[in-house]
Write a structure and sequence with these properties.
5 helices; 4 strands; globular; four-stranded mixed beta sheet
Length: 143
């Protein structure tokens, strides 16, 4: 891979989407298929969650393995250049995610993270989501 200038790297990183990514679209399609209605990118909640179902008190974040540092994942690589910057950036991302998840839990939400690498196996991911929604449905009915 050719080394990029700082400007070229900045241009490349600015093109990275924050919402409507391929993994997010897949998760949304799977949730819609099982009948879950949701809102997207709710700005009034900590961390602007990707997917929110208020009735079930359910939040789904679709995280990129690289940016959010999915432990043990082959997609969680680290750039070779400017290591101090990237290390600090990734640590700040993890701390922010932890703060947001804790704040959402204090508000009574169940917080689910779907990792980018999980979307490579839609069948397995769909089963996980169905199990989760089934558990949430039974808890909501008992309330």
């Amino acid at each position: 891979m050719a080394l990029r200038t700082t400007h070229a790297r900045s241009q490349l990183m600015s093109a990275v989407r924050r919402s409507g990514t391929v993994p997010e679209l897949l998760v949304r399609r799977l949730l819609t298929a099982v009948g879950l209605r949701y809102r997207l990118n709710v700005r009034g909640l900590p961390g602007t969650p990707d997917i929110v179902n208020q009735r079930r008190h359910l939040i789904v974040f679709v995280h990129g393995c690289f940016w959010h540092r999915h432990r043990g994942c082959r997609l969680t690589t680290s750039p070779k250049r400017n290591r101090v910057f990237w290390s600090s950036k990734f640590a700040a991302n993890i701390a922010r995610d932890n703060r947001n998840h804790a704040a959402l839990r204090r508000l009574g939400f169940t917080v689910v993270t779907v990792w980018q690498c999980e979307t490579a196996n839609p069948g397995k991911l769909s089963r996980r989501l169905v199990r989760l929604l089934g558990d949430r449905h039974h808890r909501a009915a008992a309330d």
